[in-house]
């Protein structure tokens, strides 16, 4: 039985990866930070039963706790998914973002090197590394141009992973994952902000949805598909880095239109810039407004991944389409709000 340690196990990706590894017969351990508030909502269903996740308290900034866990768990594989992962918040908390995302990755790699250099290591890299893109689409050889403290911290984590692979011969890999969503996505991310906002509007809790840059383009996939690629990366004969994406790009505006269409509302857009609004074509009711609060100090306009390497070398394919993903997220938030449209 293989043994895996997942940092960031309480997050979207961590919960899906834990499920995936349990189904593969792994013994799964997760790192969580001590908190007075229960933050295990996404994995509560994995904490009981014959096949369950074992949780351990620790912190990415605490080298001692990381080393002790590696000694006690003796994992075959470590998946580093822990991060301050919200781009907009990274502008407000740049040092914390760097401490966790950059130095935390270094700390974990150094612990692996000292405790057991045979451990296979996966680093969750991000398409935000490409930032102000140098070419379209972006692949493993596209130059990076990060545009946020989050992206810069992930750039350090990416290169320190490559450095430890080359300097110490660690089986250390980067998965450069483009945007991947699900019903478990945090509510402060734009996709969930849209789907929960629609549920709130239908439930009468709010009148309007407020968004930022409607024209930002992203390569959106399903998180449940992407964790298979994460696992496959560590099953290869040699360590390497991979772009994981769908090869399609859609605007925030498109996501919003499709999400509203799933509840029988067709949007029409009026105005420009901060004065643009989205209205119900049938009633004229204003349902979407633009707010400067949600714009980044430096914007990333377009992300589009080229997953050729992942498809050919890993044999990986995304299964859930963009349309199905949006439908899945809308239905989940409607159900959570007690709304039944069928």
Automatic annotation (TrEMBL):
Record field: transmembrane: none
Keyword NADP on entry: yes
Top EC category: lyase
Pfam families: GDP_Man_Dehyd
UniProt catalytic activity: GDP-alpha-D-mannose = GDP-4-dehydro-alpha-D-rhamnose + H2O
Single GO MF descriptor: NADP+ binding
Example GO biological process: 'de novo' GDP-L-fucose biosynthetic process
UniProt keywords, alphabetically: Lyase, NADP
Gene3D superfamilies: NAD(P)-binding Rossmann-like Domain, UDP-galactose 4-epimerase, domain 1
EC number(s) reported in the record: 4.2.1.47
The keyword NADP is assigned to this record: yes
Domain of life: Bacteria
Cofactor(s) required for function per UniProt: NADP(+)
InterPro entries associated with the record: GDP_Man_deHydtase, NAD(P)-bd_dom, NAD(P)-bd_dom_sf
NAD(P)-binding domain: residues covered: 5-329
Known role: Catalyzes the conversion of GDP-D-mannose to GDP-4-dehydro-6-deoxy-D-mannose.
Similarity field: Belongs to the NAD(P)-dependent epimerase/dehydratase family. GDP-mannose 4,6-dehydratase subfamily.
Designated name of the protein: GDP-mannose 4,6-dehydratase
Native species: Thermoclostridium stercorarium (strain ATCC 35414 / DSM 8532 / NCIMB 11754)
Lineage: Bacteria, Bacillati, Bacillota, Clostridia, Eubacteriales
